[in-house]
Design a protein that fits this description.
Elements (H helix, E strand, L loop, with lengths): L2 H25 L5 H22 L5 H24 L9 H17 L5 H25 L5 H27 L10 H9 L1 H71 L5 H32 L7 E5 H11 L1 H6 L3 E4 L6 E5 H17 L6 E8 L3 E7 L7 H6 L20 H12 L3 E7 L3 E9 L2
Parallel strand pairs: 2-4
Antiparallel strand pairs: 1-3, 4-5, 5-7, 6-7
Helix pairs in contact: 1-2, 2-3, 3-4, 3-5, 5-6, 6-7, 6-8, 8-9, 9-14, 10-12, 12-14
Length: 457
C-alpha cells in the first residue's frame, strides 16, 4: 500500500471520528470540553491527511507549512485531551495556545529548507508531543490498564518519530513526505495506533464516568445513612418533647384551674405549695422551649457566633442566680471557684445556654443535701472549667455514646425531674461553634464531671 493510500485512510478515519464526536456533543445534554478538544484535534488531522492529495491546488510551501502545523496541533490536542481526562485542575488553554504558536513558528522557519530537514524537524516535534503525552500519563500514578496501554502507544510513537527524524537528517538526506522506505512505512503504519488511541480515549471517559457514578453512589449512600440517623434522632427528640411538654403544660393547666376555681377550699400553705409547683413547672417549660428554639436555629444554620470578651465568673454568677430556686429546693450547695480575672472570648448568649444546661443537669441528678463544685485550670490558650457533682453518675454504655450526634438520652432526675435530652446536644454544638471542647467523666453512684474549654480573651 503506497503512502498516499495510507494518508487517505488516515484522513477518512480522522473525519469519521470528528463527525462522530460532533454528533455526540450536539446530542449530549452535558457538554464536555475534553471531548471538544479531542474532536478539534481529529479535525486538524483530517485536514492534514488531505493536504498531500490536494497539494497541487495550493503552493507547495504553504501546503507543507500548514500540514506540519496542523499535524502538530492535532497530535497535541489528542495527547492533551488524553492527559486531562482525570486531571483535577481546569484545562490550561494558555498552554495549548503557546504550544500552537511555537510549533507554527518552527515550521515557518524551516519552510525553505530541503524536504529531509522539514521531515526531520516535523518528526522531532511530533516525537516531543508524544513524549510529553506519556510523561503526563506516567505522572498521574493511575493504575488503570487502559492508561498503561495509552502510555505504551505514546512511547512507541515518540520513539518511531525520533528515529524517523534522525534518519531524515543524518542518514537518508533525500527523504520526503511521500518517499518510500522501511522507516517511512513503519512511521506511517504507526499512525494507525492513533485510531486505537481513540478507542482508549472513550474507554477512559467511560472509566471516569464509572468512577464518578461509584463515588456519587457512595456519597449518596452515606448521606442516606446520615439522613436516616438524623430523622430517627429528630423523631425520638420530638416524641420526648411532645410527651414532656404536654405533661408539663397539662400539670400547669390543672394547677391553674384548681387555684382559680377552688382557691377558697385550700389553706394558705397549700396555695403556696401549688404556686411553687406552678412556678417550677413554668420554668421547666420555658427551659425546654428555649432549648428547642436554640436547637432548631442551630440545625437550620440560623445561629451565627458573635464572639465578645467577658468574665466567666460574672456569667456563672448570673446563671447561678437564675437557678437559685432549683438548688435551694434540693438543698444543694454550689461552690464557684472560678477566678474573677478569667476572661474568655466567645458568644456570651451561647455560653449562657451551655452553662445553664450543665448546671441544671447537675442539679437534676444530684441528691438532696449534696454539693456541686465549679473549678478550673488554664493553659496558654484556653480555660478549662469543670462542673463536679455528687450525683447518681452515668452508666458506662450510656457515657460512651452520650456525645455522639445520633444518640439521644433522657432519664428522670433524683426528684423525678423530667428532661428532653436536647440540652446536652445543644451544649456540645454551641461549645464547638465557639472553638471549645466538652468532655464527660463519670462513676455510677459517685458523680460526674463535665469539663468545657473556651479560648482565652
Amino acid at each position: 500500500m503506497d503512502v498516499k493510500t495510507l494518508i487517505l485512510l488516515f484522513s477518512l478515519a480522522s473525519w469519521f471520528t470528528f463527525l462522530f464526536l460532533l454528533y455526540y456533543e450536539i446530542t449530549s445534554p452535558k457538554k464536555n470540553r475534553i471531548i471538544q478538544l479531542y474532536a478539534i484535534g481529529k479535525l486538524f488531522l483530517g485536514f492534514v491527511w488531505l493536504l498531500p492529495i490536494i497539494g497541487r491546488f495550493i503552493p507547495y510551501y504553504v501546503s507543507v507549512t500548514i500540514g506540519n502545523t496542523l499535524l502538530a496541533w492535532g497530535c497535541g490536542l489528542e495527547v492533551f485531551s488524553m492527559a486531562y481526562i482525570n486531571a483535577k485542575k481546569p484545562i490550561n488553554y494558555r498552554r495549548i495556545s503557546i504550544f500552537g504558536f511555537i510549533s507554527l513558528f518552527i515550521f515557518l522557519i524551516i519552510n525553505t529548507q530541503p524536504d529531509n530537514i522539514r521531515v526531520g524537524v516535523a518528526s522531532f516535534v511530533i516525537g516531543v508531543i508524544f513524549t510529553l503525552g506519556f510523561i503526563w500519563i506516567l505522572k498521574q500514578h493511575n493504575t488503570s490498564k487502559r492508561r498503561y496501554l495509552a502510555f505504551s502507544i505514546y512511547l512507541f510513537l515518540a520513539i518511531i518519530n525520533f528515529i524517523r527524524g534522525f534518519t531524515a537528517i543524518l542518514v537518508d538526506t533525500k527523504m520526503s513526505l511521500t518517499s518510500k522506505g522501511l522507516i517511512q512505512d513503519v512511521a506511517f503504519a504507526s499512525f494507525f495506533l492513533l485510531t486505537l488511541s481513540t478507542i482508549i480515549f472513550f474507554l477512559l471517559l467511560k472509566e471516569k464516568d464509572d468512577k464518578k457514578i461509584l463515588s456519587d453512589a457512595k456519597v449518596l449512600a452515606n448521606t442516606n445513612e446520615l439522613l436516616k440517623a438524623s430523622n430517627a434522632t429528630k423523631d425520638k427528640l420530638f416524641s420526648i418533647i411532645a410527651h414532656d411538654l404536654r405533661g408539663a403544660m397539662g400539670t400547669s393547666a390543672q394547677l391553674t384551674d384548681l387555684l382559680f376555681h377552688q382557691h377558697k377550699e385550700f389553706s394558705e400553705q397549700e396555695r403556696n405549695q401549688f404556686l411553687e409547683q406552678l412556678v417550677n413547672s413554668s420554668n421547666k417549660n420555658f427551659e425546654l422551649l428555649e432549648n428547642l428554639l436554640n436547637w432548631s436555629r442551630s440545625q437550620l444554620k440560623a445561629i451565627t457566633v458573635e464572639a465578645t470578651i467577658f468574665s466567666m465568673n460574672e456569667l456563672l454568677k448570673e446563671i447561678l442566680s437564675q437557678v437559685e430556686s432549683m438548688f435551694q429546693t434540693k438543698t444543694i450547695h454550689i461552690e464557684n471557684k472560678i477566678n474573677s480575672d478569667w476572661f474568655v472570648k466567645a458568644d456570651y448568649e451561647m455560653i449562657k445556654v451551655v452553662v445553664r444546661n450543665i448546671i441544671t443537669n447537675a442539679i437534676k441528678f444530684s441528691p438532696c443535701n449534696s454539693k456541686i463544685t465549679i473549678e478550673g485550670q488554664e493553659d496558654s490558650f484556653k480555660y478549662h472549667i469543670r462542673f463536679i457533682d455528687q450525683g447518681v453518675g452515668i452508666q458506662a454504655d450510656v457515657l460512651k455514646e452520650l456525645l455522639t450526634p445520633e444518640f439521644l438520652h433522657s432519664t428522670p432526675g433524683t426528684a423525678n425531674e423530667k428532661g428532653s435530652g436536647i440540652g446536652l446536644k445543644l451544649t456540645k454544638d454551641f461549645i464547638e461553634k465557639n472553638g471549645g471542647t466538652i468532655s464527660i467523666s463519670s462513676k455510677v453512684n459517685e458523680g460526674s464531671v463535665f469539663e468545657i474549654s473556651l479560648p482565652k480573651g
